[in-house]
Amino acid sequence: MPYATAEQMIARFGEQELTALTDRDGTAGGVVMAALDTAINDASALIDGYLAGRYALPLAHPLPALTRICCDMARYGLYDDAVSDAVAKRNDDAVRFLEKVAQGSITLGVSSEGTQATPQDMPEIQSAGSVFARHSSKGFL
After folding, report:
1. Do 59 and 117 form a contact (C-beta atoms < 8 A)?
2. Is residue 136 part of a domain?
3. Which residues, given as ranges, of the chain have pLDDT below 50?
4. Does 135 reside within a domain?
5. Helix 33-51 crosses helix 6-13 at what angle (to 10 degrees)?
6. How many domains does the chain have?
7. Residue 102, phi-psi category: left (phi > 0), alpha (psi -120 to 50), beta (remainder)
8. Which residues touch 51 (CB under 8 Å, ≥6 apart)?
9. Under 8 Å CB-to-CB from 123, ≥6 apart: which residues?
10. What is the phi/psi pair of residue 50, to 5°?
11. Contact present, 76 and 87 (Cβ < 8 Å)
12. C-beta neighbour count of 11 within 10 angstroms
């Protein structure tokens, strides 16, 4: 299951850049969806490779962070040789994030079965009731 869609890629990086990356010979005159889908599927498979050791796949509720990471990795995969430093850095950051998830240093907030994790150490607030209430104010309030 891909973590991003072609529409999300276009929204993030613009149709002009993705046309330049996917329409290599210039004959399509727009974004070549087959090439874009292939890059998204490749990036999603790579993400799954990092997550498979910790989580049951496919995730029931993938995080928006995985969509961003998938888009960054797919964009990097579409470049041939002329990768800008910004695109390479975003890909490197995505890989570092996934490595930390695979090591267990970062959690995705889902259980190992892929369901939403419920925190066990949440604060609990208890009250003995209100001190200043109309019925106990003896005419003051």
Report:
1. no
2. no
3. 114-118
4. no
5. 100
6. 1
7. alpha
8. 57, 59, 98, 101, 102, 108
9. none
10. -75, -35
11. yes
12. 11
**Cis upstream peptide for 62 (omega within 30°):** no
pLDDT value for 1: 82
Q: Residue 98's closest CA among 13, 10, 1, 3?
A: 3
The pTM of the whole model exceeds 0.85? no
Residue 93 belongs to some domain of the structure: yes
The per-residue pLDDT for 117 is 47
Residue 47 half-sphere exposure toward CB, CA atoms < 13 A: 30
* Cα four-point dihedral sign 43, 37, 57, 62: positive
**Domain assignment present for 12:** yes
Tell me the residue range of the domain where 71 lies.
Answer: 6-117
Half-sphere exposure of 117 (CA within 13 A, CB side): 14
In contact, 9 and 35? CB cutoff 8 Å: no
Please, are residues 51 and 59 in contact by the beta-carbon 8 Å criterion?
yes
Q: What is the pLDDT of residue 85?
A: 95
Half-sphere exposure (Cβ direction) of 122: Cα atoms closer than 13 Å:
6
Q: Is 95 exposed, middle or buried (0-12, 13-18, 19+ CB in 10 A)?
A: middle
